[in-house]
Design brief:
mainly alpha, 0% strand, globular
Length: 459
């Protein structure tokens, strides 16, 4: 049976209404996956290199990463809001409005990121002290150094994400892959110099991260000004706020940002819980999260594809085509994710010896990675990429409230119950996470089947 036979829903959508062929999908997905892998390989390299500076340092960086990721999700949510609007205008065939939306996406990204930078520099240490009061001095010192430096990358991170989201809306994922490759090369070389040559510990990883993000932001912005693109960015539209278009973007971005930030804040709260489990479990959680990200990168790669395909169909006023693509892409996500997670599990025995950690830490890593990968392969396609399809259709409120229920309430409650109450430690945290996915997947499938998302209008 061919791939089309496996993933194409019946009845097959007429060819003239198919906005993306299998060849087009493959041309989008492969660069997206490579881009994700490049970022994750660098993440693994970061963790491995920092591990040679001692478990206190790797623990501090891992705890800090939970906070740093809050801001990354905020910037990504802002970029996603603009990407949905741009995709729908592309589907409608309105280039001028698409250009305005893309330009305003940059304006919003810059404004939000500068505010985050200032707040972090002013209140970062106080926040770390409140969240991680139980950690020892070495871990706290690494946290403070890392956060203060990587905060300088916030504007670059936000601007890069705005540009990358624009190119993905046009289906030009090969461009973002190349920029990401260059960025990650700078990062990994800088890490090696910072950790091994300069022996700078957490700072030796933080500075290369910041420098590489600024490189990527400058390159991506220059590319987005190319008038030959299907959609570009105009300086005048970028510098001047336009209330109507910004409002459209924010109606998508704000609920998505709230969802993503609340999700990560819940992880930060759980990080304060994990900090009470001891250095071995803290280190195992930090390394395990990097391996989790490697396993989840297939679903992460599929999310922009949902946004582009569904957004363009909804912009063209073809909700039936959007539904067809959501079913097709969910099937493809399930097929690819199951195969990918099985492959990652097979690679874990080769990856673990690269980390300079204790046998106890290795044991915990193995347990939480096995739990994660089984559910990431079979459940996460319904809890992550399908949610992106609903967002691309404009169904933001549902995504927000379902995430509040699943992640903020269910995952947090179960984490404290299993991890602390039943003394399961980070293994209990892992079980709480996958049970959260199961509930989210059920809610997303029910919402898709109800068809209520079809009535949402964003342009």
């Amino acid at each position: 049976m061919t791939l089309s036979g496996l993933i194409d829903p019946r009845p097959v959508l007429p060819i003239e209404r198919q906005r993306m062929t299998n060849k087009t999908l493959r041309a989008m997905i492969v660069p997206l996956l490579i881009e994700q892998l490049l970022q994750l390989v660098v993440g693994i390299a970061d963790t491995m290199m920092v591990s040679y500076a001692g478990e206190a340092t790797v623990s501090g960086v891992s705890l800090d990463t939970m906070i740093y990721t809050v801001f990354i999700y905020l910037f990504t949510a802002s970029a996603t809001g603009a990407a949905v609007i741009v995709s729908q205008y592309i589907g409608r065939g309105d280039r001028d409005k698409a250009v305005t939306a893309a330009s305003q996406g940059f304006h919003i990204a810059a404004a939000v990121s500068v505010i985050c930078l200032v707040l972090t520099l002013l209140f970062g240490n106080a926040m770390l002290g409140a969240l991680y009061s139980h950690v020892d001095g070495g871990v706290m010192s690494a946290c403070q150094v890392y956060l203060r430096i990587v905060a300088l990358s916030f504007p670059a991170n936000a601007i890069y994400n705005a540009g990358a989201a624009l190119y993905r809306s046009m289906g030009k994922t090969r461009v973002t892959m190349r920029v990401s490759a260059a960025m990650n090369l700078i990062n990994v070389v800088g890490n090696a110099i910072g950790v091994f040559a300069l022996k700078a510990g957490a700072a030796g990883v933080a500075w290369p991260t910041t420098i590489s993000w600024w490189f990527a932001a400058i390159v991506m912005t220059a590319l987005c000004f190319n008038e030959k693109n299907e959609v570009c960015v105009r300086l005048g539209d970028m510098l001047r706020p336009q209330r109507e278009m910004a409002g459209r973007i924010l109606r998508i971005a704000a609920p998505n940002a709230a969802e993503q930030v609340l999700f990560q804040l819940a992880k930060v709260v759980l990080g304060s819980l994990i900090a009470t489990f001891g250095t071995s479990q803290i280190a195992a959680n930090g390394i395990g999260q990097t391996l989790w990200s490697l396993a989840a990168c297939m679903c992460t790669s599929m999310s922009p594809v949902f946004i582009t395909a569904v957004g363009q169909c909804m912009g063209a006023g073809d909700a039936d085509a959007a539904a067809w693509y959501m079913r097709k892409l969910t099937r493809l996500s399930l097929l690819l994710s199951a195969a990918w997670n099985a492959l990652v599990l097979l690679l874990v025995p080769a990856i673990l010896p690269l980390y300079a950690v204790t046998e106890e830490t290795r044991h915990f890593i193995w347990v939480i990675v096995i739990i994660h990968n089984i559910f990431a392969g079979l459940v996460q396609p319904f809890a992550m990429p399908l949610s992106s399809g609903l967002r691309a259709a404009g169904d933001m409120q549902f995504s927000l409230w379902s995430s509040l229920l699943c992640t903020v309430v269910v995952r947090t409650a179960l984490s404290f119950l299993l991890g602390l109450g039943l003394h399961m430690g980070i293994v209990g945290i892992a079980w709480a996470m996958v049970l959260d996915w199961c509930l989210k997947a059920v809610l997303d499938v029910i919402r898709f089947g109800s068809g209520k998302w079809r009535a949402k209008k964003v342009i």
